[in-house]
Amino acid sequence: MKKKTIILSAFLISAITTMAQITTSLFVNPAPPSSLYEWGSRKDVLTYVVVVQGGLQAQVKIKAELKLADGTIAGTTNLSTAKTYPLRDGNNLFGATDVLPLEAMLFNGKYKKAYEATGKLPADNYQLCVTLVRPVDFTPIGETRCRSFNLASLQLPIPVMPLQDAILTSEQARTAIIFRWTPVVPKPSAPVQYRVQVFPVLHDQTPMQAFRSNPPLLDKAVTGTTQYIWQPQLSTLAYSTEADSSSNKNLTFIWTIQATDGAGNPLSDGNINGDGRAEPMVFHIAPPVNGSKKLKEEVKKLN
Amino acid sequence: MCLSQKPFSISGTAGVNYEHYGLSRSPSGWTGFTPRKPWNQVRFTFMPNIQFGKNFKLPLNINIATRATNFAGPFSGIGKQNFSQYITNPLNTIGANPKYKWAELQLGTQYLNYSALSTGDVGVFGAGFDLRPKKYMIKFFYGLSQQGVNFFTGPPAVTGAYKRNNWMFQFGKAEEGKYEVSLNFVKARDAVASLITPPPTVKPQEGFTTSFVTKANFAKKWYINFEGAHSYYTKNTLLPVDTTIPSFKPFIEAHTSTVRDWAADAGIGRKSKNFDIGARVKYIGAGFQTPGYPFMLPDRLDYTLNTRILAWKNKMNITASAGQRVNNVKNTALRAKQFIGNLNWFTQFNDHWSLNLSYNNFGFQSASGINPFGIKNVSNDLGINPTYTWMNEKVMHLLSLNYNYSKYDERDIITGNITSNNAHTVLLTYVPTFLTKEFTPDFSVMYFNNKLPLFQLTLITVSSGLSMPFAKKKGNFRGQLQYNYSKTNSNKNNNNIIASCTVDWKLTKKLTWNNFFSSNYFKYGNEIIPNNASYLESNIRTGLLYRFGK
User: Fold this and answer.
1) What is the pLDDT of residues B353-364, one digit of tens each?
2) Which of A55, A123, A140, B112 is the least buried, fewest Cβ under 10 Å from its Cβ?
3) How far apart are CA B488 and CA B450, in angstroms?
């Protein structure tokens, strides 16, 4: 009994000493990326600083707890599988992959379901609380630091005008083509820049092939609105590609919207390319009236 | 008497064309207008379809260009290409599909569409087959959808991409016009070691998608189709393996960046000569991503209803559709709804008069509140297009008037104020077709006005076209000349003249010389600095096209 009391006393003294020598601070971006795996690739999302003084050498694990405003725990670190880190004298910096190691995180209920399906947690206000613990018995070392942040995944724009496979008349398209799209939702705090991009589809190209290989006829950045009026300044005559005249062919175009932040970086939520581009849409410009199939057929009938 | 099959026949085309683009800007050093095409480009096409006897076909599909022009996608910004990059660049297609009876070999570049949720958008360079013994379908293809491209800061900057291997397999049964059932498997994996300088923003990925497709036609006029799909997608294979996320071994092992979700696409409808009706529902889960459709946006639910009615002795044709798209279905952010409705109503009243009416509406709304208010955008477009034709012994006249009113309202989420963006378009077209002469001219005038608070844009276009054969119909000329006047607010107006023509000449029965010439001169007023800036674009395309066979 006496022996146990001595060991316990020594342990407590050691813990108090350790606490006195370790100070921590936590920074979390108030609006981090919605996909948790992206946190690790960005330095501005999470920084945890542990300052050790007095030449202390110690091994620690980092315990993270993700909570909602009402205290509901969305996820917590599985300390038995979490990495152990050595602390050195001076500043010890930890990033998102150290503090929130996804391979060692245990999410609960609907948060687990959402994370497994989407890599994201449901949109809400969260709090991240971080504590250093001993590797053996997980007893806390130092204070718990908590920071709040908001998770909301962005929905990229969707082109709505011209609609998929819309056919515009040659006479109208020569002057102006109106492009409209839905805005990025929810509206980010920084202004979104929308780049309207229109690519020609050449004969024998699929629209997606043209999109991935041709230079754009239009690449225009628009801020603060979801409409752009394009004056194409293009001939609507088709280059003949067959031995007989192909003047009756539509000209085909594929267009998209690329959403970027103020610095021109693509908003990465959305497709697998992470380039901020909306799913492209195809539209056509009909041949000029005097070359139209309908008119030729009518004249043929009369003759 | 028995008709014998020709032992050898060939059809299709082969050609070469050269395109030149020129741009001169004034004052010199002004860069307010950037080039829209490469300065020079040469394209070759070789697409013969060779048939040996009754059962063997050899279609070739070769389309290549000398200069890479990629802007979007994995080859973005690439300049000099090595051979493997050249042949896998989506700009170039080199493919052959030899076919013997029901067995087809697929070689080289192939754009294979297995289904709407598995694969269909991506060109893959490789080898595979498409077998159709009796009613069965067995398809497999393996190849590269993109070659490794090293990151380069530039200029010009190259985004960079990992080499991506693609596999696809389909097994099913189908009877044309009756039913189809199939299972699709699609996999893609980036080769991490394929680059010397990996791109900082692009990560190596891996995806595996399974889909089940069923289609059936029944009761003569009815059809039904359904596809259900499940995907696993790892967005960064450099991140650690995660045993807490379910894997689907041996096809894919989960990492911390792996997502997995469902998608479905179902439709039912009835088609007949005078009446069509159909309904479609499409759901893409928030974590559903497939390598076969790299630009597919997840997390949405679309449902649409469409119809077509042909009435009044085929003189009236009505098409209409209405639907809604719900974004953020999984509630990973605020849910938003989008309504889309279209109506097109054409009536031919008599030999002289016809009228086309069209109406398009879309509305987009996110969950509402007060400061910030929810996003709300509403677009309404109304088009009225009467056409009158009359004729005498020598000329058939066509006069067409087109009026379009477009209203677009956007709500400011802070103030709640709605900004109306209104556009009016009036277009008058006149086309006299001379019954005894070979040429057909056309004339049109268009007025466009777009107004919103503190901004007004006015455009006026006058254009004319001419189409005529020449040299005993061996040649064909089409020309267009147009003048555009544009003015914003109280600025001095801009002027724009565009002249273009095509000249096609049949050199022999099978060989045609095709030419396209275009020039575009634009002179600004004082809406930009420097005032009176101008540019001249020129575009020349000339080429020979040979048609195989008769």
Assistant:
1) 999 999 999 988
2) A55
3) 9
Name A109's Cβ contacts closer than 8 Å, sequence gap at least 6: none
Q: How many CB atoms lie within 10 A of CB B262?
A: 16
Distances (CA, A) of B396 to A11, B341, B377: 105, 37, 45
- Predicted confidence (pLDDT) at residue B111 exceeds the cutoff of 90: yes
Bond preceding residue B372 cis, omega within 30 of 0:
yes
Is the pLDDT reported for residue B332 higher than 90? no
Range of the domain at A286: 159-302
Closest-CA distance of chain B to residue A292, Å: 11
| Binary contact (B207, A152; C-beta < 8 A) | no
Q: How far is the C-alpha of A63 from the C-alpha of A113, rounded, in Å?
A: 22
3-state secondary structure of B499: strand
CATH number at residue A109: 2.60.40
Token couple for B355? 């009228």
- Chain A contact for B291 (CB, 8 A cutoff): yes
- Supply A87's token pair: 């602390």
In what helix (H) or strand (E) does residue A296 lie, and over which residues does it extend? Answer: helix A293-302
Is residue A120 located within the same domain as residue A255? no
Classify residue A14: in a domain, yes or no: no
Nearest to B496 among A105, A227, A233 (CB): A233
Structure tokens that stand for B189 in this block: 């994996």
Q: How far is CA B422 from the centre of its chain?
A: 28
Query: Which of residues A86, A119, A151 is at a domain's end?
Result: A151
pTM of the full structure: 0.90
User: B63 and chain A: CB distance < 8 Å anywhere?
Assistant: yes
First to last CA, chain B: 25
ipTM of model: 0.94
Separation between Cα atoms, residue B23 and residue A215, nearest integer Å: 15
Number of domains in chain A: 2
User: Which CATH number do you get for residue A206?
Assistant: 2.60.40.10
What is the distance in angstroms between the Cα of B381 and the nearest Cα belonging to chain A? 10
d(CA B456, CA B461): 17
